[in-house]
Amino acid sequence: MTTSHDDHLTRIPAPEGVAPGTGYNHVVWGTGRFVAVSGQCAFDEKGEVVGEGDAAAQARQVFVNLRRCLAAAGATFEDVVKVTYFVTDVAHLPAVRTARDEVFARDRLPASSAVQVAALFRPELLMEIEAFAIVPEPTGSGTGAAPRGETETGFRTGSGAGFGTGFKTGFAS
What phi, psi does 48 have (nearest 5°)? Predict the structure, then answer.
């Protein structure tokens, strides 16, 4: 059984006797302050749907919204221990995975579940994603610094950061 420890979280990709998952860890636990983020949909800051009929555009907007909600609690994607994907069609999962891989480091994946649902509360919405995080307790007086390892849009920076240096986040033009 492989276990990875970093900061305040422990991740187990495959407990003994359990086949490894693809794109998630089977078990994640940690110490700190628990944060629950309600299911997010592809709405921009004005409440307008982004990417009607476009799973990739909706997935990107959902992760932008998740990042904003996490930041409000002093958390980042590195603190997320569990995500649940609710999709109206499992055919949308590749788009969700692509967007997910832009914000989660491959060695810091949360536990996850994916559920196909008959419908969401508005017919143009293709997915809703919720997240649970554990934020480390502060060790001193904070300065309000930017979240660890993320840009203003929530996408990872540094080695393996995804889209590359030319990526712009104008998802909801």
Answer: -90, 145
Going by the DSSP 8-state scheme, the letter that residue 173 receives in this structure is -
Contact 68, 154 (CB under 8 A): yes
User: b vs e for 16-33, b when ≥16 Cβ sit within 10 Å of the residue's Cβ?
Assistant: eeeeeeeebbbebebebe
Task: Compute the residue count for the chain.
Answer: 173
Nearest alpha-carbon partner for 52 in 103, 127, 157, 121: 127
pLDDT value at residue 140: 62
Query: In this predicted model, what pLDDT tens digit does every residue of 28-57 receive, in sequence order?
Result: 999 999 999 999 999 999 999 999 999 999
Q: In the 8-state DSSP scheme, what is residue 24?
A: S
Instruction: Give the DSSP letter string of 62-120.
Output: HHHHHHHHHHHTT--GGGEEEEEEEES-GGGHHHHHHHHHHHS-GGGPPEEEEEE-S--
Q: What is the dihedral of CA 45, 48, 50, 53, to 10 degrees?
A: 160
Which amino acid would we find at residue 30?
G
Joined together, the tokens standing for residue 27 give 């078990």
pTM: 0.77
Q: How far apart are CA 169 and CA 153, in angstroms?
A: 7
Mean pLDDT of the chain: 84
